[in-house]
Amino acid sequence: MGSAEFWVAIAFLILMGVFGYFGVHRTILKALDNRSGRIKDELADARRLKEEAAKLVEEYRSRRAMAEREAQDIIANAKAEAERVAAETKAKMEDFVARRTKSAETKIALAEAQALADVRAAAADAAVAAAAQIMSQTVKGEAADSLLTKGIADVRAKLN
Q1: Domain coordinates of the chain in residue numbers?
Q2: pLDDT value for 94
Q3: Single pTM value for the model
């Protein structure tokens, strides 16, 4: 009766027959089918998660692009505002300087007019004093007093 391989083959066939009788092959096939179903479900979940991740990545890219555009708009608006404020400040400063210059020129003109009036008044007083002294030395009496008063009035009227 033979060799060891022959008996191993017969034992294998008997084992397969017992497995077939008790339905082990159905259990194995059912387990494989269950495993196949779990793998299909996991692959479907993985695809779904991948699609969701791709959507999130795209959403974040669009948000980032929008945020960059908003930042550039804010920067552009800030630059424009700064230029406007600088121009406005420059205009106000020029107006202020012009007003101050005009005010200073007006004060200088008033001071010149006052100085000229003071010089004229001093000259008139000096002329009146000189005329009074000359007339008092040359003309005497009542005629001298009337001439002196009239001359002083004329000199004051003409100099002022």
Answers
A1: 4-113
A2: 92
A3: 0.43
